[in-house]
Amino acid sequence: QVQLVESGGGLVQPGGSLRLSCAASGFTFTRYYMSWYRQASGKERELVATISSAGGLTDYADSVKGRFTISRDNVKNTVYLQMSSLKPEDTAVYYCNTRFPGTLSNYWGQGTQVTVSS
């Protein structure tokens, strides 16, 4: 079955950096776009970044452009989110996601907490 396992979250000071990882299994990773979402306490889940199946196309929420970078390793079946210049408003649970086009299949990881605080 499809599994997405996030790691790399933690507590970081404002201005700091973190790299999140999402290890994928149970499907043909190289065929599908991958995304990172986040959900802050009391707020709706929002899309942070998306990367195409081969990694050549990326897209970002305006709030993270220039600070976050999404990438993937199609040998390791892993997608990454490099986060820099972190702000307190980046505090949230970050989720890895994939969807299978033409189906209702929509998969989520368990999430990893990122806290930006001094």
What does this structure look like?
The protein has 118 residues and is mainly beta. It is 0% helix and 50% strand. The chain contains no helices and eleven strands. The protein has strands spanning 3-7, 10-12, 18-25, 34-39, 46-51, 58-60, 68-73, 78-83, 92-99, 106-108, 112-116. The strands form two sheets. Strands 2, 4, 5, 6, 9, 10 and 11 form a seven-stranded mixed sheet that branches. Strands 1-3-8-7 form a four-stranded antiparallel sheet, with no helix packed on it. The radius of gyration is 14 Å and the shape is globular. The N and C termini lie far apart (40 Å).
Low-confidence stretches: none
Element pattern in H and E = EEEEEEEEEEE
Summarize the main sheet.
7 strands, mixed
Q: Percent of residues in helical segments?
A: under 10%
How large, in whole angstroms, is the Cα Rg? 14 Å
Question: Beta-strand level of the residues, as a percent range?
Answer: over 45%
Number of strands: 11
| Tally of helical runs | 0
Query: Based on helices, strands and strand pairing, what is the structural class?
Result: mainly beta
Determine the mean pLDDT: 97
Q: How far apart, in Å, are the first and last alpha carbons?
A: 40 Å
User: What best-fitting shape do the alpha-carbon axes yield?
Assistant: globular
